[in-house]
Amino acid sequence: xxxLRKDANQFVMGVTNYMKQEGKTPVFLxxxxxxxxxxxxxxxxxxIARVESAAALTPRERQTIEAFLGTLLAHPVxxxxxxxxxxLGGILIRVGDWILDTTLLGQLQAMKESLV
Length: 116
Fold this sequence. Notes:
- With 116 residues, the protein is α+β, with helices and mostly antiparallel strands.
- It folds into 2 domains: 1-45, no CATH class; 46-116.
- The protein has helices at residues 2-22, 25-45, 59-73, 104-115; strands at residues 48-53, 78-83, 91-95, 98-101.
- β1, α3 and β2 form a beta-alpha-beta unit.
- The longest helix has 21 residues, at 2-22.
- The mean pLDDT is 77.
């Protein structure tokens, strides 16, 4: 959960810093806040979490992810797990519109976008 908080904080800081640089903070900040609120509220209503990983998850890993998401969303969720070797490593979790991507593929794509 600490990693999620760190990632979410970095995302919000990145968006707000961008808006400050562009001089659009007063106009867009309420819209960004509302969008983040909607995404979070939508995820909290979801009962199913879709998880992709490069290798099959062990029962203990599934249990850990279920517990983490249950704590985060304040209700139990059911995992739908799928092996996707294209992820190369890490996991991708989707709960409604909320996505947590720790896959190597996702990180490589993010690096590619930041370099272009």
